[in-house]
Design brief:
Radius of gyration: 19 Å
Shape: globular
Number of domains: 1
Distance between the termini: 27 Å
Strand order of the largest sheet: 4-5-6-7-8-9-10-11-12-13-14-15
């Protein structure tokens, strides 16, 4: 077992939502599989583990070994990539491009990805769905001035009710992200978010995935209780909800989001009981 922890570098949120989803359930289990070489979560690494689990926007996992820093997307980063590649589709009009076929696109540096989607725009609502496939898709990381390469698949869908402005959005996928010999794999990603385009309210109802690396130190993530927030708040943080990361030897880290824009981190050393470690600003945390 490797006790190395991958640490988060947070940059921003996109559209105010964490773009995960929450599943209620037994806090003693994880909806995603715990990797065989999982990290043992301790009091010293629990906060970094939770930051890595829920970091959003263009947040990147950071490896720091032998003086070299390598950054790769986390689970939330994968969702941001899916959203970016599907484009900013509007309910105002159907795109003038073929639907139901895989359309190839060039990635930022090299390689390709394909997008196979269908779209519907009626008097009552708008929706689209599709799949993405990444093949040696190399993108530039402007934070460090380096590149990373994506291989994998993803699916997505979105629907909007014109009369209520309620929406539902889902993401799923499996992918590897590689840079300078380091590899992060994200498997079993499942995310669901519901909200309202007018009020800005959003609920994250499912966010499950397993993160593993080629140097060990992975973990499994799930939401224990729904993450609830609003795009128009002074910060993009959830005002309630909790996230659980599960590691080796039944160890766990929990992040509890509070209505004062803070997050409380606690950890379970495998005994089944959680010990509170800290409460800090959600903005700094994610």
């Amino acid at each position: 077992m490797n006790s190395t922890i991958v640490k988060i570098t947070s940059v921003c949120l996109i559209n105010g939502a964490i773009l995960a989803s929450c599943t209620s359930g037994d806090s003693g289990s994880s909806a995603s599989a715990i990797p065989a070489d999982a990290l043992k979560i301790t009091a010293s690494n629990a906060q970094d583990t939770m930051s890595a689990a829920v970091g959003t926007g263009t947040s990147l996992l950071t490896f720091a070994f032998g003086g070299e820093v390598v950054q790769l997307p986390s689970g939330m980063g994968f969702i941001d990539i899916i959203r970016d590649k599907t484009g900013n589709r509007s309910a105002s009009a159907l795109l003038d491009m073929p639907q139901g076929v895989s359309i190839p696109y060039n990635c930022g540096v090299s390689g390709t990805y394909t997008d196979n989607y269908t779209e519907s725009n009626t008097s009552t609502g708008y929706s689209y769905s599709g799949t993405l496939a990444f093949e040696d898709c190399t993108e530039y990381n402007s934070v460090l001035g380096s590149t990373y390469t994506i291989n994998g698949n993803a699916s997505y869908n979105y629907s909007l009710n014109f009369s209520t402005d309620d929406y539902v959005s889902n993401f799923a996928g499996n992918a590897t992200f590689a840079s300078s010999g380091y590899v992060i794999s994200i498997s079993g990603l499942s995310s669901n978010i519901t909200g309202n385009e007018s009020t800005g309210d959003w609920n994250i109802n499912t966010f499950n995935y397993t993160l593993d690396t080629n140097i060990g130190g992975g973990f499994a993530v799930k939401i224990e209780s729904p993450l609830v927030g609003n795009d128009y708040n002074s910060t993009d943080c959830p005002l309630s909800g909790s996230v659980l990361a599960s590691g080796a030897e039944s160890t766990r880290a929990r992040g509890l989001f509070n209505n004062d824009y803070t997050v409380t981190v606690s950890f379970d050393d495998g005994s089944g009981s959680f010990t509170t470690l800290s409460t800090s600003s959600c903005v700094n945390f994610i």
